[in-house]
Amino acid sequence: MTAPARQLDENRGDIMQNPYRPYPVRIDEIITETEDKNLKTFKFVFIDPEDEKRFAYLPGQFAELSVAGKGEIPIGIASSPTEKGFVKFTVNKVGLVSSHLHAMKAGDVMGIRGPLGHPYPWEALKGKNVVIIGGGFAFTTLRSSIIYMLEHRDQFGQINVIYGARTPGMLLYVDELKAWEARDDIGMHITVDGAKDPDWKYNVGFVPTITEQKAPPADENTYAIICGPPIMIKFTQPVLDKLGYGHDRIIMSLENRMKCGIGMCGRCNIGKDFVCKDGPVFTLAQLNGMPKEY
Amino acid sequence: MREYTDKIRQIARRLLEEGKVDRVIGFKKGSMPMMNEPCVIRRPQDADQLIWDGNCGINLANYLTGAKDKVGVVAKGCDSRNIVTHIIENKLDRDNVVVIGVPCQAMIDKRKIAAAVDGEISEVTETDDGKVVVRGNGFEKTFDRAETLQDNCAICVHRNPVICDEPVADPVPEQTDVDRYADIRAIDAMSDAERKAFFDDMFAECIRCYACRNACPLCYCPTCFVDESRPQWVGKGQDENDIRTFHFLRAYHCAGRCTDCGACERACPVGIKMRVLTRKLEKDCKELYGWEAGMSVDQRPPLDAYKPNDPDAFIK
Amino acid sequence: MKFVKIDEKQWAEGIGKLKSGYRVFGPVKEGKDHEFRELTGDASPDMAFSNTRLSPKSVVYPQSEVMFEYTTDESRPDHHILKEPRRDDTPRAVIGIRPCDALSFLLVRRNFDSPEYKDPYWLRNYEATTFVGYGCNDPCATCFCTSAGSAPHDTQGLDALVVDRDGGYAAKAITEKGEALMKAAGWTDAMDEAEAEALFADRAAAAEKKITRQVATDKLAEKPSMDLYDAPFWEDVAFSCINCGTCTYLCPTCWCFDIQDECRGCEGVRTRNWDSCMAPLFTAHGSGHNPRGEKVQRVRQRFMHKLKYYVDKYGEGIQCVGCGRCVRSCPVNIDIRKVCDMMNAYDPEAANDCACPTT
């Protein structure tokens, strides 16, 4: 017999299972990250503290930022699960929703829906050397990963970070970069395409070049996580090949246009896999056997 | 029709052999009765795939937008007028296109025929004496070809190609005694409420697949206004205002450009007769400016020309 | 009570009775074609139809559906908080659905009811619905259900099946849901089981014989996905396509959707609308980059999804029930039967000199 009509509004348990319903959050702080002012970091707190527990995530996952009246955008989570009481996202101003977000202010109410997708393969990375290669504004889930690894420092071997931006003013999370630079348990290799500042004391050069110079030699125990613009990835990959990194040791995070974030709406697929649900993290070995539809 | 097909194949083969074109766009036989498929032929030996009959209603000018290579194209009257429009609108270089001109004997309307018989149609043949024979499981019915025409073909006054490099046959006589706007005048005469009800009824079935737009050779905008997100001009659901906005605006966008090829109605999966919108604007352009779209590559359309001595004050 | 007979009068009365407990949907003639519509008032299903023009998927999956409501009025305490609208979960009955269309719901369910996520909108509508099938006696020339895991009298996805019988119908309950519906309709006039079995079997066999077109799908699973993806025939298949999306909108198994926010003043809704892989916007990134920006990529996506990705993902055959709607309504005669045969027969070794395959 058919199920009786249900009053779903009153049934919170049922609503919680609606994967399209965002958790209500309040914007706690907005930080302008870059000199072109196109990148802002949003720090959110959950209006219902219980929602923070439900939003249990690992570095590499993403969420849909949801603005009533405007829509949703999928954004990688920039905070680390080891940071409590808030979640952080760094958003590039591109389209309708991100432009609206950039015009919002602390105290405004919106939603986040997630966590979505697979994180970086933390189980496999345990006890291994990790080299993080990032470029431009794609450094967000890499920030999450660095903080996460530093909090669990004893679980990893060597950690190296190669991070590049066009100019010093386009680097994200500058204060944190400096703090990591001062530590001796992480190798930081910050670079810019060019710097006018005579006091710039880090590297100058494109990410592939710096990778060739600074990345640790490849072995079974070393993984590279790469996130960046297509041009950076295109030229870094041959460098990693040259250094001998196996394609199953190169981990990448993809982007595609998304709506549902849960593998249902059909648009972000590459072959039979969805970037949202089966990704966004793939090894290069996996991607080699998939259509280049990203 | 057999002579047309033979001649088209001959011309296509020759053009490809002589290297005058890189490819020829025409029709090949479809997989169902009353359906042909637009196709591209690149090798002389494939020219025999080309055919011509009363089921070549798709406007092939749609496949020429932005072509940079040398293309031969099979074109009936309306297709040729859209080729002219493409040339005027800088979507096609006259030197790049070889028009294989087909004096059109009008296209048959598969929906009219399907509605006039009971049961599934297995075969439809056109005879030389102007009949259409429809066969199916346990029935055979013969129609006068004239009763089976697409609505736009029945009132067409430009059946012969207006530009033609390779004629397929001698011109056919043009229809002269047709009233193109009887239904438009009837809508003009309606009260506001009647007209609103008429349009509401007309759009009720629309599923917003945009087949009409995509079948139209005029609709080549890189991003159609319905797909714009900043600003978003129309909502994307089934709101009747949004549906109306789409249809009306699209029609206005075709004002002074539409050749009444009927591709929109032919493509519509739910049978919306949206040509009343484009023909209303066609009528206006004719009455206000004495303009018919796509008749000459040498004349600018009235809606994209400015004259300092324009009699209307608003433009000054 | 597994089999019942229903005379014309009982049928009409039964439809009337159902309306008190169900929202009843059935085929209705509109203009020259039939569509599934909600039968209100005295409306009764018009069973003299072959295939409806649109598929009945909208009964469970409306073209446009409100997911959430909200207000952006900051004077209200709940501003910018999304809430599910009150839903109508009244049981629904679809009377006269064709077996191919009924199977489509099982295929689509794999997408909306995944191990990780449940789509509450689709699932609640689906669970609220009882599907009463109508055995197909005269399949269309475009039908190929028997190649797509269904058959004119197939019962997958159905709660009850009705077939023609002298002076009315015979019905078979397939699930408890179906049995309950038949009871509610007062269709309880038991039929001799042997006689009924024979009638159902005869009807099914006669109809199946009329399906003349077979499509080969047996080799799709074993073909490497990238071989098919890189096959040379896609340019040719796609040439005539005008990217209109008619095929996807009419298809009972196409489920892709878009999510949109719309406001009037401060009152807003988040809706989902059918979307189409044929539209360039479907995959366009905010940056302007588009991984499927070319028509040929979109056409390939549609066929690869239905005939390869789905096959590989679920191991349950193709994402197609052979209803033939896309074949009939494609304005440029792109025929999935031909494409499927081509994919199934594709051998990259033999394809070297294949500039112009016989599409």
Write the layout of secondary structure elements.
The complex is a heterotrimer of chains A (294), B (316) and C (359).
Chain A: H1 12-16, E1 23-32, E2 39-46, H2 49-54, E3 62-67, E4 71-76, E5 87-92, H3 96-102, E6 109-116, H4 122-125, E7 129-135, H5 140-151, E8 159-165, H6 174-181, E9 187-192, E10 203-204, H7 207-214, E11 222-227, H8 230-243, E12 250-253, E13 269-270, E14 273-274, E15 281-283, H9 284-288
Parallel strand pairs in A: 7-8, 7-11, 8-9, 9-10, 11-12
Antiparallel strand pairs in A: 1-2, 1-6, 2-5, 3-4, 3-6, 12-15, 13-14
Chain B: H1 2-17, E1 23-29, E2 36-41, E3 71-75, H2 77-88, E4 97-101, H3 110-116, E5 121-126, E6 131-136, E7 139-144, H4 151-154, E8 166-167, H5 182-188, H6 192-203, H7 211-215, H8 240-253, H9 263-267, H10 275-289
Parallel strand pairs in B: 1-3, 3-4, 4-8
Antiparallel strand pairs in B: 1-2, 5-6, 6-7
Chain C: E1 3-7, H1 8-18, E2 23-30, E3 33-38, E4 64-71, E5 92-97, H2 99-112, H3 120-127, E6 129-134, E7 160-165, E8 168-173, H4 176-185, H5 193-209, H6 225-229, H7 234-239, H8 246-250, E9 257-264, E10 267-274, H9 295-314, H10 325-329, H11 336-345
Parallel strand pairs in C: 2-5, 5-6, 6-7
Antiparallel strand pairs in C: 1-8, 2-3, 4-10, 7-8, 9-10
Helix pairs in contact in C: 1-4
Structural commentary:
- Chain A is of the alpha/beta class and 294 residues long.
- Chain A is built from nine helices and 15 strands.
- In chain A, the strands form three sheets. Chain A has a seven-stranded mixed β-sheet with strand order 10-9-8-7-11-12-15, sandwiched between helices.
- In chain A, strand 3 and strand 4 form a beta hairpin.
- The longest helix of chain A is centred in the last third of the chain and has 14 residues, at 230-243.
- Chain A starts with 11 loop residues before the first helix and ends in a 6-residue tail after the last helix.
- With 316 residues, chain B is an alpha/beta fold.
- Chain B folds into three domains: 1-105 and 159-178, no CATH class; 110-148, no CATH class; 179-302, no CATH class.
- In chain B, a hairpin with a 2-residue loop joins strand 6 and strand 7 (139-144).
- The model of chain C is unreliable at 354-359 (pLDDT under 50).
- With 359 residues, chain C is of the alpha/beta class.
- In chain C, strand 9 and strand 10 form a beta hairpin.
- Chains in contact: A-B, A-C, B-C.
- At the A-C interface, strand 4, strand 6 and strand 13 of A face strand 4, helix 4, helix 6, strand 9 and strand 10 of C.
